[in-house]
Design brief:
heterodimer, A: alpha/beta, eight-stranded mixed sheet, 8 strands, about 50% helix, elongated, disordered N terminus, B: alpha/beta, 20 helices, disordered C terminus
Chain lengths: ~300, ~450
């Protein structure tokens, strides 16, 4: 197992080295030439930052050059870095942390990595000695409940589940009630993966959120959107629709152990003002970290 | 969206004015917009670059034909080049040489392998083949249960072992089991893996060399970004792919990733996954997909779908009627019959440009129910009423309601909708689409 992990890390490293090599090349030039903007554009677009946000970022750096603050190509890197971090640094939405249990609703499109991310969140709580209840709100996909139960066992979290095909709202209600009676500190709600364009399924999500507020009007305290780091420009649309439906409080950027850069979050942060709060970096339970804008930008630029 | 793209281009060329040969300046201005549109569709940066240089070369020497505006001419060239990349013919599964044929499904985590495996099995079963599903993903919790359940729902046999078994052993045992049986397709689900995970890629390479599958299909999430090319290239060079299946196309992602993969690896796209239902697997048509990537909806799929059940003559007659606005409830009824033949209404509407969003507002079964109701209402009308619904007064309304088991309110609703539709088609045919209808017939593609 550890040998295998070593190999994954090596794979990531190789891919990253190739990437870094190119960047080093871009910034290694002496003076600022026109070419450098084209190359930066390519670099950012290949990281899934998107055309509009890329142009926006480059324009800002160009202004710095114009203002005479930047003259050397090597300085462009730090100017760009500052602008990129600036886009990502959004003050988190206020969360009522006094309420117990904390209710966390987890949403996202199919295959984005919701269930694994939930397992990691649960593990984060239980490894601190906190009691967690998982609500098996994905009653649609075949064997989704079994999958959550597996993680419940692994993380020492109790799973509240109904039969496949049953009303997810009822599961959520039962789970929160169970959390109250068992003095659990947190309830994490799994939901069925849904494409943001499906009106009915988005309505269902609204209903789940409403049910969550029945026992505690301040719940859910967090609504996390799980986003696959390999997602391209569609990520922005996803975030837009999901936040319209259930007001996302934060993003969970999953699968960052892949070679994808996850650049779509720049547009999400910038245009929708949704902060990214966690990143997922592997298949193990510990493979989760709070999001850090500087580290993230460094991974794209260094 | 192509509507937007076309509008933008039309505006640019309007300003530039004139016809005849496209000037280099015209072309560059136009291609800047095309570039933006392709990048927004997640077509890989390098692929866009290469594609546009081809387009530019062709466009520079092209005369603008009489029937096209310069903007349309440029888009037409882009469209044709896209089709050249995608391949002119739809690609099918390879014919079986030595049964059982094996199809190995591979891909990243969450790209849709398990669901697609079940869809593919059902597709083959519906073609009269005898598929077996193999639960080769022993790593993801409950993946085995998932495929067993899917198999059970569709009455397709599933071979599985417990989660401790090695994937390669499971596959070999599955093959042993089907010897001397009617099974002629073995579809193997595998674990999701990163293309850089050396051990996992080796495992796949071993399975491939042991089983010699007829098809090695990479499932690609339609929402994948720029990295798709790296992923596919690595899978292709390590294990040799025979086809792609693009999944989750029922969302609004334009799927530029698949175009890029095809361009870079040459591996054909064989199927599209278009919904969560197990029946939602469609063959891939290059021309339609090109429209989608350009953002103009799947106009051609829609047309062909309709054509399959709607004869050319009927279509011509309908068009004439729409043009002359003698389109009446009889025609609507006829259309409803056709729609029933074509299939679920929502999937039909989703193919229209600008309409995917609308379809999402229609509850899936509700749409069908409503159609049946409308049909019943029209059937309860006299011929005269159908031809000239304006004569329907209170007492006629009550009679129709009674006859169709509905209420007078329902009748009003149907009539109002019909009038709206009449208005809409009128303005469409005059070439002045209303605000609610995206312009879709502006471009003369064949």
């Amino acid at each position: 197992m550890s040998e295998q992990l070593g190999k994954i890390e090596q794979g990531v490293k190789q891919s990253k080295e190739a990437w870094f090599g190119r960047i080093a090349h871009i910034f290694a030039r002496g003076s600022v030439s026109e070419e450098i903007w084209d190359e930066l554009e390519e670099l950012l677009i290949l990281a899934d930052v998107g055309v509009e946000t890329t142009n926006n970022l480059i324009d800002r750096v160009k202004q710095r050059v114009k203002a005479g603050k930047v003259a050397q190509a090597s300085q462009i890197r730090s100017a760009l870095k500052a602008e990129m971090i600036n886009l990502l640094n959004i003050s988190p939405k206020p969360i009522n942390t006094d309420s117990v249990p904390q209710v966390i609703l987890v949403v996202g499109v199919n295959g984005s990595g919701k269930t694994t991310s939930i397992a990691k969140l649960a593990y984060d709580f239980t490894s601190q000695g906190k009691r967690v209840i998982l609500a098996a709100g994905d009653t649609f996909r075949a064997a989704a409940i079994d999958q959550l139960k597996y993680w419940g066992e692994k993380t020492d979290a109790e799973v509240i589940a109904h039969r496949p095909g049953s009303d997810p709202g009822a599961v959520v209600f039962d789970a929160i009630q169970a959390a109250h009676s068992r003095h659990a500190q947190a309830v994490i709600i799994d939901t069925a993966g849904r494409l943001h364009t499906k009106f009915n399924l988005m309505e269902e999500l609204k209903k789940i959120k409403k049910v969550a507020a029945k026992l505690d009007p301040t719940a859910p305290h967090q609504v996390l959107l799980v986003l696959d780091a390999t997602t391209g420009q569609n990520g922005l649309t996803q975030a837009k629709y999901f936040t319209e439906a259930v007001n996302i409080t934060g993003g969970f950027l999953a699968k960052l152990d892949s070679t994808a850069k996850g650049g779509i979050i720049f547009a999400i942060c910038h245009e929708l003002n949704i902060p990214i709060v966690y990143i997922g970096t592997g298949e193990k339970l510990q493979d989760m970290a709070p999001f850090n804008a500087e580290t993230f930008v460094n991974a794209i630029l260094y | 969206m192509l509507e937007v793209l076309t509008q933008k281009l039309t505006k640019i060329f309007h300003e530039l004015g004139g016809k005849g040969k496209l000037s280099e300046k015209d072309i560059d201005t136009a291609l800047r917009e095309v570039r933006l549109s392709l990048l927004e569709a997640d077509v890989n940066f390098k692929v866009v670059k290469e594609l546009l240089s081809r387009v530019r070369e062709r466009a520079v020497s092209t005369e603008v034909s009489q029937s096209l505006t310069p903007a349309q001419q440029v888009i037409k060239i882009v469209y044709e080049e896209l089709i050249t990349i995608l391949g002119h013919e739809p690609s099918k599964l390879a014919p079986i040489t030595h049964p059982p044929a094996i199809a190995l499904l591979v891909g990243l985590q969450g790209s849709g392998k398990t669901t697609t495996a079940a869809k593919l099995a059902l597709h083959l079963k519906n073609l009269g083949q005898h598929p077996l599903l193999v639960a080769g993903d022993t790593r993801r919790p409950a993946a085995i249960e998932q495929i067993k359940l899917l198999g059970k729902q569709q009455n397709i046999p599933v071979y599985s072992e417990d989660a401790n078994a090695l994937s390669i052993t499971i596959c070999c045992n599955a093959l042993k089991q089907v010897e001397q049986t009617a099974t002629n397709w073995v579809i193997i689900d595998t674990q999701g893996r990163l293309q850089i995970d050396e051990a996992m890629m080796q495992e796949l390479a071993d399975i491939k060399s042991k089983l010699q599958p007829l098809e090695v299909l990479l499932t690609v999430d339609a929402m994948t970004g720029q990295e798709a090319v790296e992923v596919a290239q690595e899978f292709h060079s390590r294990i040799g792919l025979t086809g792609l299946i693009l999944t989750k196309l029922d969302g609004d992602a334009r799927g530029g990733a698949a175009l890029s993969i095809r361009f870079v690896t040459g591996v054909p796209i064989k199927f599209l996954g278009t919904g969560e239902k197990i029946t939602a697997l469609e063959p891939f048509y290059p021309d339609r997909f090109a429209s989608r990537v350009l953002g103009m909806g799947d106009v051609l799929s829609f047309i062909e779908h309709a054509e399959r059940t709607y004869s050319q003559q009927q279509a011509k007659e309908l068009e004439r009627k729409m043009r002359t606005t003698s389109f009446d409830l009889n025609d609507l009824l006829e259309q409803l019959h056709q729609i029933h033949k074509i299939g679920p209404l929502t999937s039909l509407i989703e193919m229209l440009p600008g309409f995917p969003k609308l379809a999402s507002y229609m509850p899936e079964d509700e749409g069908e129910k409503r159609l049946t109701k409308i049909e019943a209402i029209i059937l309860s009308m006299t011929t005269e009423e159908r031809h000239n619904p304006r004569i329907i007064n209170g007492s006629r309304r009550r009679r129709i309601a009674q006859g169709s088991g509905t209420t007078p309110q329902d009748i009003n609703q149907v009539l109002n909708q019909f009038y709206q539709m009449q208005k809409l088609t009128k303005s469409l045919m005059r070439g002045r689409p209303s605000k609610n209808m995206p312009s879709m017939f502006g471009i003369p593609f064949k």
